[in-house]
Design brief:
The protein has 382 residues and is α+β, with helices and mostly antiparallel strands. The protein is built from 11 helices and 18 strands. A hairpin with a 7-residue loop joins strand 8 and strand 9. The longest helix is centred in the C-terminal third of the chain and has 30 residues.
């Protein structure tokens, strides 16, 4: 089953054909009796959706049954309900049907709209950007592309596999090498009986430079993906000397990567990278406080809805579980607030969709983490 990624979010955002049905519910891995209860809960949510389609959208009953058929088939699938995580998200439209088991608790909610309701999924991806881990030793090196819950080894050409490949002394030549100065052996000059610390470091620098050059051909600097090093203590400062990738983290995983599995690498990496992503949010909040009163921020929903549509929002903070129905008329540049129904949609969700589709970042935060107790905050590009 698919994981929730930025690409998944983008696909949901791009859906244009109505109706867009979003169903959320809390779940858990459980035994048969509890699984049955969850299937009943899901059936109740589908019944609500069916009523909305028939009564509010005047859909034909046959078309309604056909649209909901993939979701309806899940009701009696006890194997499906036994294998849940913390939350289930289901999305249905005339062109797509998808569901996601997520590791974060979700509210119980069913929404029929002209847009998929994505806000409950945003916490799954807002700190789930790609980052890279370079495992570095004299014997081998590997690059891994990671998210919070996944790790994938990346094969890169033109990177030496080990220090041995670039060493000026091959194993077979390390015992002794010499050249003769003069006509007899008494003039021989011997080398290789013991490398100096300087020579060893220079070999490491050459090895690391070739790795750095190969990485920079692969890593996209525009994405600003952080790079984390795993190595023994003495290698990391040497690699930092030659590093030219601008998003190398100053903290590293200390240890011998030759002796650990990818799962262990992922666990240790996330402990460090999570702090990096949290600092990014802290920086956004600090910028908000610095910019207040300058016209570069807003806490007014109507202004933010308009700004998000016209690609002005760089970062958007939304309090979890807030709702305001209405619609936006781009020709008049006017936001109409309303009660739920009558063709309205959730404006917080609309602002999130437009911000993401225009290249901005969206964070959904609990009440205690929202600055100044606001429901929504935008930092503008211009």
């Amino acid at each position: 089953m698919q994981k929730v990624t930025k690409q998944v979010m983008e696909r949901l955002i791009e859906e244009k054909e109505e109706p867009c049905i979003s169903i959320y519910m809390p779940t858990r891995a459980t035994a048969s009796s509890e699984a049955k209860k969850m299937s009943i809960q899901f059936k109740s949510l589908l019944n609500f959706v069916k009523k909305e389609l028939l009564e509010s959208r005047n859909m034909d009953s046959r078309d309604t049954e056909e649209l909901l058929k993939p979701a309806t088939s899940l009701i009696g699938d006890l194997v499906f309900w036994k294998n849940q995580k913390e939350g289930l998200a289901v999305f249905i439209s005339p062109k797509q049907f998808s569901y996601f088991r997520v590791t974060s608790p979700l509210p119980e909610k069913a929404i029929v709209s002209q847009y998929f309701y994505i806000i409950p999924l945003i916490p799954e991806v807002m700190f789930n950007e790609y980052y890279y881990v370079l495992t570095l030793s004299k014997n081998q090196n590997s690059l891994f592309r990671c998210t919070k819950g996944s790790i994938e080894k990346i094969e890169i050409e033109d990177i030496p596999k080990s220090l041995k490949e670039v060493s000026k002394f091959k194993e077979s030549e390390k015992v002794l090498s010499f050249h003769t100065s003069g006509s007899d052996a008494s003039g021989a000059i011997f080398h290789g009986m013991g490398e100096s610390d300087t020579e060893k470091k220079n070999e490491l620098l050459q090895y690391f430079r070739q790795i750095d050059q190969g990485l920079n051909k692969y890593l996209d600097k525009k994405s600003k993906s952080p790079l984390l090093i795993m190595s023994v203590k003495e290698l990391f400062p040497i690699y930092r000397e030659i590093n030219s990738y601008p998003y190398l983290l100053v903290e590293n995983i200390e240890g011998n990567p030759d002796e650990v599995t990818p799962d262990v690498i992922l666990k240790n990496a996330w402990e460090i990278v999570a702090k990096y992503f949290n600092r990014k949010l802290d920086d956004i909040i600090e910028t908000y406080h610095n910019w207040k009163g300058t016209g570069k921020t807003s806490t007014q929903l109507e202004d933010i809805v308009s700004a998000s549509y016209f690609s002005r929002v760089e970062q958007l903070l939304i309090k979890n579980n807030v709702t305001q129905f209405g619609n936006f008329d781009p020709e008049e540049n006017h936001v109409y607030l309303a009660e739920e129904g009558n063709g309205q949609y959730d404006l917080y969700n609309f602002a999130a969709i437009k911000t993401i589709s225009n290249g901005g970042q969206v964070y959904v935060l609990d009440d205690e983490h929202m600055p100044d107790g606001e429901n929504i905050i935008a930092l503008y590009r211009f």
